[in-house]
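Progress report, Aim 2. The chain analyzed during this reporting quarter is listed below.
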Amino acid sequence: MNNEEIKITEFDRLSFNGSTQMMKAMLPYIPVNLQHSFAYAIMFREFSNLRHNISKASSSELGICSVNHQSASVSDILKDLRQYGSEKQQKFIDMMINMLQTVSVYQQYMQLLSGSSAGFSDSFDFNIDDIMKQFSMSGSNP
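Predicted structure tokens for the chain:
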């Protein structure tokens, strides 16, 4: 994923404003010995914006950053994460989504054979640390 394709998350929008983007655009034009300090100043400015926006926002405004965890399936999470990944990570996520769909079809088939009326959902337990390790091994540098 090249720099022009990086998507901004809803959480990032809470710290975003035009002045910080202009400061980031100026960074290459600042003398090299001052770039690190200037970069830290930009990050501090974004943190301040985030803190300000969170403190003034109502819980409904912050709700854009949250999902009902009980209704979110693993497939839903993977589909949302996919847009932020590198090409290699996106292929890995596609493979995982296909695997979930295959398991779902298999379980539905087995339920049909057994005459069970219980529905299947892919919202089974999973370990987010394991998923994040897989992303880092598949080239987490977007």
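The longest helix spans residues 87-114. The mean pLDDT is 77. These observations will guide the mutagenesis work planned for the next reporting period.
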